[in-house]
Amino acid sequence: MKAVFLTALDLEYQAVRSHLAGIRTHRHRAGTRFEVGRLANGGCDVALGLVGKGNQPAAVLTERAITEFAPFALLFVGVAGALQAGVDLGDVVVATHVYAYHGGTSEDDGFKARPRVWEASHETDQIARHLYRSGQWTRCLPEMTTVPRVRFGPIAAGEVVQDSAISAHARWVRQTYNDALAIEMESAGVAQAAHLNRSMPMTVVRGISDRADGTKVSSDGAGWQSKAAAHAAAFAVALAQDLAREMGSGPSADRSAKRAGAVRNIARDRAHVGVQVGHLYGNVSIGQPPVTVIDPAARLAELRNRLRQAANAQEVDEVTFSAAEQELALAAETLPKSAEDDRSTAVIALKRAYGLLSDQTDLASQVSAILAALR
């Protein structure tokens, strides 16, 4: 299972990427490039993507990332402008909820707000607050960094860069959303996509890089974007590690496993489900004689031997080989001995191996075949 990190700007992307090891490119079939790796201090597997500016592209690419990686958690990391006088440059804001503030109706007597709001999940919010209280997240900060304050509160997400304290837009935002701590342009799209995916755990972590009051040019010139992005990345990386530990067991893990592997067809009225398919590789026939049942243990042994051959031939790099072999070894140890045995551990390990080997068509198809046999 992976945690997905998404950012809007390149400097935000680099701030998260600096915490990763074993990085390799993952190409989505539609052309999007993600990078996958592992948190450098021995944490969880991670997929990292760049969504660009604006809520609409953020929503589209968030949906793409969720579909591609079936993550156990989604973290949106970056910079934002402050909306409250007490929120300082460099502070970290963790969203308790996100306002999509551009919703409304224009009438003769003015513009009436019709916002949409997405709240952070209670479990994720509690984990984030405990992490803040413990102070352990500060270990992820760059050396010689003054520890910033962490604040929990609403974030407003719209479609414009706000850099004024006195414009009509600025006055309206501060009056209508007067509890918002920060303002930016992507979180509403990310929150919408997460909400539509069975309320996937999603966290927005923003570092304050300007005051949204007309001083953005001077703040950016003083390097506050890079500093704020580094602060937000540090908290988000530490949070991902805690989420991985917390969601490794219990109901959250069950939900994550279902997201990662479930294929569900619904038949209504007189309809019947004839074929239920996740991923298909090779030749596919329907209505033909039954497919020969394979022995998962034997196929897994063949796969591990083929993986070693590919590594020796330098078809698979050393980091990928080591990580994939570790997952296949775990799958071999936890293969169910009978139809009644719990197979979830082996299935999840094989899915992780599939993700690592997705660029190797032959190896990935063998993993898929073993998964099909287990199901």
Report a brief summary of the structure.
The chain is an alpha/beta fold.
Structural overview:
- Keywords: Hydrolase.
- GO terms for molecular function: 8-oxo-7,8-dihydrodeoxyguanosine triphosphate pyrophosphatase activity; adenosylhomocysteine nucleosidase activity; methylthioadenosine nucleosidase activity.
- InterPro entries: Nucleoside_phosphorylase_d (IPR000845), Nucleoside_phosphorylase_sf (IPR035994).
- The chain has 375 residues and is α/β, with parallel strands linked by helices.
- It has two domains: 255 residues, Rossmann fold; 79 residues.
- 41% of the residues lie in helices and 21% in strands.
- The chain is built from twelve helices and twelve strands.
- The strands form two sheets. Strands 5-11-10-6-12 form a five-stranded mixed β-barrel, surrounded by four helices. A two-stranded antiparallel ribbon has the order 7-8.
- α4 links the parallel β10 and β11.
- The radius of gyration is 23 Å and the shape is elongated.
- About 2% of the residues have low confidence.
Ordered list of secondary-structure elements with their pairings:
Blueprint lengths: L1 E6 L2 H8 L2 E8 L5 E7 L5 E6 L4 H15 L3 E10 L9 E9 L3 E4 L2 E4 L2 E4 L2 H13 L15 E8 L10 H9 L5 E3 L2 H10 L5 E9 L5 H6 L2 H23 L4 H11 L34 H17 L5 H16 L10 H13 L4 H14 L1
Parallel strand pairs: 1-4, 1-5, 5-12, 6-10, 10-11
Antiparallel strand pairs: 2-3, 3-4, 5-11, 6-9, 6-12, 7-8
Helix pairs in contact: 1-7, 2-5, 3-7, 9-10, 9-12, 10-11, 11-12
